[in-house]
Amino acid sequence: MRYSNVLIMILAALLLSACNLSRDSQTDESLVTATGDASNGSKPIVTISSPESGEEVVINDDVFVSATATDSVGVTEVQLIVNNQIVKRVFSESVSGDKSMNVLLDYKPTAAGEITLQVIARRGSVASDPAELELTVRANQAQVTATLVPATNAPVIDPNDPTCRALVNTSLRLRSGPSTNTGIITVLPSGAVVPINGRLGDNSWWQVRYNSNIGWVAAEFTTIYGLCNGVPVVSSPVPPTQRPPNTPVPFPTATNVPPATFTPVPTDLIITRITGPENVTIPSGEGTTTVNYSVEISNIGGTRSGQFSNTMTILPGGSPLDLGVVGNLRSNETVLLSIDITFSTTGDFILRAQADSGNQVTELTEVNNTGTLNVQVGQAPDELTSE
Q1: Per residue in 317-344, pLDDT tens?
Q2: Are 102 and 189 in contact, with CB atoms under 8 Å apart?
Q3: Could you tell me the CA-to-CA distances from 219 to 4, 48, 199, 291, 335 in Å, in that order?
Q4: What gap in Å lies between CA 364 and CA 32, rounded to an integer?
Q5: Is the peptide bond prior to 250 cis by the omega test (within 30 degrees of 0)?
Q6: Statement: the pTM of the whole predicted model exceeds 0.70
């Protein structure tokens, strides 16, 4: 009987302990879930719908990448990255971002070979995991063995079409005037190509035609094609509140939209700085050493750059090395490129970085496109061995 009572007491203690463990476990789990929801700790999500990994493209042909970015708070920026270099950036029209953002990112490869393409969405400083694919760049169309599947919203860009037109990179509001304070006529989908009828003097807004609507779009969300030298400057419409009461709105005439010479403030690319070790040592017993350097390129001009290539050369005697391609560097914007340099001999060297090495951009001046860094390379002494 005594043993029976003891056994019952042990079983009761075990049951009570199990109940306590279960209750604590449930409490901890609910706290973790609540904390995660409250802190908005999740990252944006981005997916690429086209092209598909493994497809082939041709040098200097436009590649259009169709992607969708989502976030519970709001996506503020989407980046296209090729071989670890940012080549395209598209921002949300909204300061707080968009919960769903469809984008069409254009890129023009400049060299044959394999490229890794990534799309990253950002909510402020919070970045998504990259959506990634591989493409093969061929020297000409005859070398292509696989067919490129076009994006569902990709336009057909005729390089021989002289019409000045804008490619819409993301869903974009068509407004009644060149200001975010004016009314919204409709929303242009990403991938739409619209003719440009007019512009503001600083090229920050385009007047475009979409179907039967004529309105204004912010230029920073578009890519320009065609010949745009003859696009007229259009005076900004007078806001209704500035008109006297009962005054009829004048019908626009040719005198209200005078033609003007297209004289934008040119792009001006400079090498802001080159950073990396200035004293390098080749390890004992090794024939080479590899060091990473960063090159900062800024656009101090008044217009966006368009796409341009860059190189790094080891002087004396070195050949230009590919530093990466940059696309659409806006006025007063800076991009940071990086490159691994391998030294195989000792001595004094000069690293010379050159922006727009292919002369793809019309600039205010070309004399400030290079920057240099002096590097001294030595050999570490052989380690002493004891007998």
Answers
A1: 888 999 988 887 888 888 889 999 999 9
A2: yes
A3: 87, 24, 9, 40, 20
A4: 56
A5: no
A6: no
